[in-house]
Amino acid sequence: xxxxxxxxxxxxxxxxxxxxxxxxxxxxxxxxxxxxxxxxxxxxxxxxxxxxxxxxxxxxxxxxxxxxxxxxxxxxxxxxxxxxxxxxxxxxxxxxxxxxxxxxxxxxxxxxxxxxxxxxxxxxxxxxxxxxxxxxxxxxxxxxxxxxxxxx
Length: 152
Description:
The chain is of the alpha/beta class and 152 residues long. Helices cover 20% and strands 15% of the residues. It has a three-stranded parallel sheet. Strands 2-4-6 form a three-stranded parallel sheet. The relative contact order is 0.11.
């Protein structure tokens, strides 16, 4: 058996569109499979999205929960082990937003926050939007500086 040559059984798949309203002889004339009278038989009818025939719709049966803080600031997190890898690979002492964008670790509209996972072995100056407390102490413990910038 060759998987690239699989196909449905002969006659099991119909490609032809059902031709409605083409006379009684077609078997699909008269009411054109819409039944007799009522909104659904008439032109221009369309049911509301989510309408379940008068039953309470799913989106109203399921309870709402939580809330969305409109003032939340989303940061792109970069950990200390990633910064150490950048220092090792690129032999640099200053890491700023432009460098992170160039390396593909952030996008131009991102706010960047340095997080404390991993270990820092080198002295490095980091200029980003925010730092976690552990990351800031780890950077300063190695003699580096953690400078918070404000994005305009």
